[in-house]
């Protein structure tokens, strides 16, 4: 089938690649040239660059001519149109649909992956001509950054928000190659699917927020949060997912989606539950800094600090809403010097905080701890779980580790005479 | 009687005898162009004096008195830093606080404009730090709550300005929670502390001398509250003070003695009177509320008024005209009550601010040559938001037995934009009330036909002199102009009355006596020798305790 994809979002690229691999011809339309898209000309496309392996998949399908960087005119003729636009770009989505309906007089299915907000897909549907069998579906994007391609091709759940039977049949056919692992297929109204997307993200954020609050309390009560979460997770009503405390969540779309839901709750229900959660999450991001500040009784000016982990989570180069931004900004503003390491995100981070006398970047994590007064860990990259402690202690000026992701073993730290601060592990 | 013993004063007294009783309604009847002829404006502000009981001759003679009193020389002395606050042997240089950086003013060989801007820059750094969430408390939490502890000039000006300019918060400043604590009895601070998070609260202690008992006892309460909160963590007092207190004073030594490190000091100077100090670092809460750019815009507005006051002939000079019309009312028409009536909820604290500015400055009975004055000086001032006062004391203004001069203060434009239709309509209703009230107060019920047939209790005699101050819009700039206008008005009247507006000896004795009475209340002194009333009250209090 001929599919047009609009937008420069992770879900768009992932769906384009997956559909292209299974015999479809995909037209990419994001108002970027092929060179710009694939990072051959003016720097890298951050969406593709940040997602491990995805760029290679796209390039492979491009080489086979399954992905085409065609003119918008060709794209407008495709019978399947995919909208994978930034949440703020609903006006652009409307323009696309208006152009498509002008050009395209036959049957048409629009798949909307964009999280514009509740009711947005219905408002886009009004621009289509149902008499000509033109319809729209909203499919909530369930990808996690860092494992987007795997999430897509091995999806456990597929929710199709669509009220048109023929369109639903077509979408199910399109998704057939990726339905082998499905536990659940839900066909609902677009509005319900949109609500579901917000509800799921909100629930996950609430779990994280709650466990972080518990961890902060545990810190004050001299209780180890790991014991508590182990107990909580063993209760089948609760389960083990999203029960690890840490220094706050980040990312682009997750945070944006929760913000949208928070605004919706506030405006319709006068409820501040998610707004409070977002505010607390921002405070949580600075917990590692506060532990450092308290350890030195506010005497931090001129101190050298190693920061391990700049991306908002492991296996991505993305730093959007990452705790590292707030922590490093605060360290610098208080006159500290930062020695930073991250396996993938240093390039992105250095655009925000260029290497100067106050901040330096290290290719090797151990090198970053040389002469520092503390090490702060902000992302749980695999390589931080068990570093060469002997060398670390030898290099550090003061053996203080502030572990914002609880990746290190507390008992071992004691054996090494390292002063250790975790989250909820006082 | 010619109260001022000047040639123009004699003429004006005669003019008052013959024309002073003319009703404002008849003045409008005689001259339909009164508004054109008695309204004066500068960019952003209009002063309408047409509803005053004045004619052209009145204004001419008032300006002549000002000249005979050498007002131009006094203005020059004020701006140039002469020691016109003679009883305290110092200049009064609040105008220097808003003078642009490129100008200079030498005071005992030092360019004080440089000092002013150094301190503004220091304040800006601090404001930006707090706005950027970079000022951290003992636990490393960013400060987001500020409590200003001060009294008098260290409280009223910033408090009034923060309310007046509440529409001008910035993205960063709007997240700051700002509180003012002034009352000595602890009622402000005790209810406030229960609601605050000590880890995120910063106290600004503002006191020119840093000895004001009202302020220091509130500061001690705040410090004890923090010490109690931090005691489980074992954080010492020096660290608490360093992270949670800023001092604003003209006496750095006293701030150090209290424990505030000099890195947390903001300064101003003894040539800044307390009630004229909101333009200095005492204005820190204002800058925290509206951001430094808006604060500087407020200073620029005040400077524009300074320049107008300094350079403009009396006949077109807004502060001079406002002041001299006041002199006419007080000294020639014998009106000793003055109502301040803002028709703008944002100016709700302007009346109490002006109460201090006018009554503490000019509420005096001694001339500069240490003689009793033989004439009235500052009237009693009071006020309230106009539309609220309409349901309170306007009855007295309309049908009472005492003459009252009234200042109506409002802005022509408010609530712009398509989403504010209802609020804009409310503002129009507010303006119509403002205009209606000044119209009736001045012209009486002549404004409606057939009023003379109404029963006497429904009649409105009018003839209360009214001034209308109409801002185009209330902005930091026009607000700065407005406050500077009143400051200069007060100065002009002080020159005419030959009094020093920059001291306040009348408030000193009370402090001394209070200190003396304290032991009788705390039981440290059993039977003080006092008048029977004070003694009786003390005994009753002690029995009740």
Any descriptors?
heterodimer, A: 426 residues, alpha/beta, Rossmann fold, N-(1-d-carboxylethyl)-l-norvaline Dehydrogenase, domain 2, 3 domains, 6-stranded parallel sheet, 18 helices, B: 545 residues, 6-stranded mixed sheet, 5-stranded parallel sheet, 13 strands, 47% helix, 11% strand, globular
Number of domains of chain B: 3
Q: At the third CATH level, what is the topology name of the largest domain in chain B?
A: Rossmann fold
Percentage of β-strand residues of chain B: 5-15%
Largest sheet of chain A: 6 strands, parallel
List the helices and strands and how they pair.
The complex is a heterodimer of chains A (426) and B (545).
Chain A lengths: L1 E5 L3 H12 L3 E5 L4 H4 L8 H5 L3 H10 L3 E2 L3 H5 L3 E4 L6 H14 L4 E5 L7 H6 L8 E5 L9 H6 L3 E5 L3 H10 L9 E5 L1 H32 L3 H9 L19 H17 L3 H13 L1 H9 L8 E5 L14 H11 L3 E5 L4 H7 L6 E3 L12 E4 L11 H7 L4 E4 L6 H6 L3 E3 L5
Parallel strand pairs in A: 1-2, 1-4, 2-3, 4-5, 5-6, 7-8, 9-10, 9-12, 10-11, 12-13, 13-14
Helix pairs in contact in A: 1-4, 10-12, 10-13, 12-13
Chain B lengths: L6 H13 L4 H7 L3 H5 E4 L2 E4 L7 H13 L2 H10 L25 E2 L2 E2 H20 L13 E5 L6 H9 L12 E5 L5 H7 L7 E6 L6 H18 L6 H8 E5 L2 H7 L6 E3 L16 H28 L6 H15 L4 E6 L7 H13 L17 E4 L2 H4 L4 H6 L5 E7 L9 H23 L22 E6 L4 H22 L10 H15 L9 H13 L1
Parallel strand pairs in B: 5-6, 5-7, 7-8, 8-9, 10-11, 10-12, 12-13
Antiparallel strand pairs in B: 1-2, 2-13, 3-4
Helix pairs in contact in B: 1-4, 4-13, 6-12, 7-12, 7-14, 12-18, 13-18, 14-18
Give an account of the 3D structure.
The complex is a heterodimer of chains A (426) and B (545). By secondary structure, chain A is α/β, with parallel strands linked by helices. Chain A folds into 3 domains: 2-188, Rossmann fold, CATH 3.40.50; 197-283, N-(1-d-carboxylethyl)-l-norvaline Dehydrogenase, domain 2; 286-421, NAD(P)-binding Rossmann-like Domain (Rossmann fold), CATH 3.40.50.720. Chain A is built from 18 helices and 14 strands. Chain A has helices spanning 10-21, 34-37, 46-50, 54-63, 72-76, 90-103, 120-125, 148-153, 165-174, 190-221, 225-233, 253-269, 273-285, 287-295, 323-333, 346-352, 389-395, 410-415; strands at residues 2-6, 25-29, 67-68, 80-83, 108-112, 134-138, 157-161, 184-188, 304-308, 337-341, 359-361, 374-377, 400-403, 419-421. In chain A, the strands form 3 sheets. Chain A has a 6-stranded parallel sheet, sandwiched between helices. In chain A, strands 11-10-9-12-13-14 form a 6-stranded parallel sheet. In chain A, strand 9 (304-308), helix 15 (323-333) and strand 10 (337-341) form a beta-alpha-beta unit. In chain A, helix 1 (10-21) packs across helix 4 (54-63), helix 10 packs across helix 12 (253-269) and helix 10 (190-221) crosses helix 13 (273-285). Chain A starts with a strand and ends in a 5-residue tail after the last strand. The model of chain A has no long low-confidence stretch (mean pLDDT 91). Chain B is α/β, with parallel strands linked by helices. Chain B folds into 3 domains: 7-68 and 312-497, Glucose-6-phosphate isomerase like protein, domain 1 (Rossmann fold, 3-Layer(aba) Sandwich); 100-288, Glucose-6-phosphate isomerase like protein, domain 1 (Rossmann fold, 3-Layer(aba) Sandwich); 507-544. The model of chain B has no long low-confidence stretch (mean pLDDT 95). The interface between A and B is medium-sized, with 13 and 15 residues.
């Amino acid at each position: 089938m001929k599919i047009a994809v609009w937008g420069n979002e992770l879900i768009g690229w992932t769906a384009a690649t997956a559909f292209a691999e299974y015999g479809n011809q995909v037209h990419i339309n994001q108002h970027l040239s092929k060179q710009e898209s694939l990072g051959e000309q003016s720097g890298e496309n951050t969406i593709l660059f940040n997602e491990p392996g995805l760029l290679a998949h796209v390039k492979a399908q491009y080489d086979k001519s399954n992905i085409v960087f065609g003119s918008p005119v060709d794209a407008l003729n495709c019978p399947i149109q995919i909208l994978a636009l930034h949440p703020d770009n609903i006006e652009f989505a409307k323009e696309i649909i208006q152009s498509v309906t002008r050009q395209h007089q036959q049957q048409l299915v629009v798949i909307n992956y964009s999280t514009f907000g509740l009711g947005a897909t219905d408002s886009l549907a009004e621009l289509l001509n149902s008499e000509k069998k033109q319809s729209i579906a909203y499919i909530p994007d369930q990808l996690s950054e860092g494992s987007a391609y795997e999430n897509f091709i091995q999806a456990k759940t597929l929710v199709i928000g669509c009220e048109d039977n023929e369109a639903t049949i077509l979408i199910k056919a399109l998704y057939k190659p990726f339905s082998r692992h499905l536990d659940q297929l839900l066909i609902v109204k677009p509005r319900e699917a949109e609500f579901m997307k917000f509800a799921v993200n909100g629930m996950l954020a609430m779990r994280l927020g709650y466990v972080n609050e518990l961890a902060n309390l545990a810190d004050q009560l001299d209780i180890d949060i790991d014991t508590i979460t182990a107990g909580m997770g063993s209760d089948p009503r609760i389960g083990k997912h999203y029960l690890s405390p840490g220094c706050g969540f980040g990312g682009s779309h997750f945070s944006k989606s929760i913000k949208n839901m928070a605004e919706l709750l506030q405006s319709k229900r006068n409820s501040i539950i998610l707004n409070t959660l977002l505010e607390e999450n921002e405070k949580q991001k600075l917990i590692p800094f506060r532990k450092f500040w308290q350890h030195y009784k506010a005497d931090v000016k001129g101190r050298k600090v190693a920061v391990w982990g700049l991306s908002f989570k492991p296996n991505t180069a993305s730093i959007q809403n990452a705790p590292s931004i707030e922590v490093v900004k605060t360290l610098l503003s208080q006159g500290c010097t930062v020695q930073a390491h991250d396996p993938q995100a240093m390039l992105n981070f250095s655009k925000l905080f260029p290497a100067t006398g106050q901040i330096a970047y290290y290719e090797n994590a151990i090198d970053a701890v040389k002469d520092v007064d503390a090490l702060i860990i902000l992302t749980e990259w695999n390589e931080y779980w068990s570093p060469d402690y002997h060398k670390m202690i030898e290099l550090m000026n003061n053996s203080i580790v502030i572990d914002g992701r609880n990746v290190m073993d507390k008992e071992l730290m004691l054996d090494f005479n390292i002063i250790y601060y975790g989250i909820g592990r006082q | 009687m010619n109260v001022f013993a000047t040639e123009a004063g004699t003429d004006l007294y005669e003019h008052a005898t013959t024309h002073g009783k003319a009703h404002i309604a008849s003045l409008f009847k005689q001259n339909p162009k009164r508004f054109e002829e008695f309204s004066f404006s500068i960019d952003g502000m209009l002063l309408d004096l047409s509803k005053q009981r004045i004619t052209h001759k009145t204004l001419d003679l008032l300006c002549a008195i000002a000249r005979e009193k050498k007002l131009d020389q006094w203005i020059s002395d004020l701006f140039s830093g002469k020691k016109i606050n003679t009883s305290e042997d110092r200049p009064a240089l609040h105008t220097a606080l808003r003078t642009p950086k490129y100008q200079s003013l030498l005071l005992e060989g030092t360019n004080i404009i440089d000092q002013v801007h150094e301190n503004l820059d220091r304040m800006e750094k601090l404001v930006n730090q707090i706005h950027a969430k970079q000022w951290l408390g003992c636990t490393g939490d960013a400060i987001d709550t500020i409590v200003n502890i001060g009294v008098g000039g260290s409280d009223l000006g910033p408090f009034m300005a923060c309310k007046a300019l509440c529409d001008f918060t910035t993205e960063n400043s709007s997240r700051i929670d700002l509180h003012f604590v002034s009352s000595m009895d602890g009622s402000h601070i005790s209810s406030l502390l229960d609601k605050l998070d000590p880890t995120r609260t910063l106290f600004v202690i503002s006191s020119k001398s840093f000895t004001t008992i009202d302020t220091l006892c509130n500061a001690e309460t705040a410090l004890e509250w923090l010490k109690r909160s931090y005691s489980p963590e074992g954080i010492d007092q020096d660290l608490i003070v360093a992270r949670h207190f800023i001092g604003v004073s003209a006496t750095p030594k006293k701030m150090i003695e209290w424990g505030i490190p000099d890195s947390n000091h903001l300064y101003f100077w003894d040539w800044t009177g307390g009630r004229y100090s909101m333009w200095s670092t005492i204005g820190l809460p204002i800058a925290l509320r509206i951001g430094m750019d808006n604060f500087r815009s407020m200073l620029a507005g005040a400077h524009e008024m300074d320049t107008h006051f300094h350079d403009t002939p009396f006949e077109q000079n807004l502060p001079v005209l406002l002041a001299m019309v006041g002199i006419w009312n007080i000294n020639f028409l014998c009106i000793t009550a003055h109502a301040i009536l803002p028709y703008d909820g944002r100016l709700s604290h302007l009346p109490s601010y002006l109460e201090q500015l006018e009554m503490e400055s000019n509420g005096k009975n001694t001339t500069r040559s240490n003689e009793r004055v033989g004439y009235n000086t500052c009237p009693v001032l009071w006020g309230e938001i106009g539309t609220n006062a309409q349901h309170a004391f306007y009855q007295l203004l309309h049908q009472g037995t005492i003459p009252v001069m009234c200042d109506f203060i409002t802005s022509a434009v408010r609530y712009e934009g398509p989403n504010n239709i209802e609020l804009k309509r409310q503002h129009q209703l507010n303006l119509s009330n403002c205009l209606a009230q000044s119209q009736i107060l001045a012209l009486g019920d002549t404004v409606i036909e057939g009023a003379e047939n109404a029963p006497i209790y429904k009649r409105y005699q009018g003839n209360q002199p009214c001034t209308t101050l109409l801002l185009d819009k209330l902005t930091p700039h026009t607000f700065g102009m407005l406050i500077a206008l009143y400051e200069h008005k007060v100065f002009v009247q002080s020159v005419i009355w030959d009094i020093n507006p920059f001291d306040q000896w009348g408030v000193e004795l009370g402090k001394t006596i209070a200190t003396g009475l304290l032991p009788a209340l705390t039981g440290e002194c059993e039977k003080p020798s006092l008048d029977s009333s004070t003694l009786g009250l003390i005994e009753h209090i002690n029995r009740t305790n």
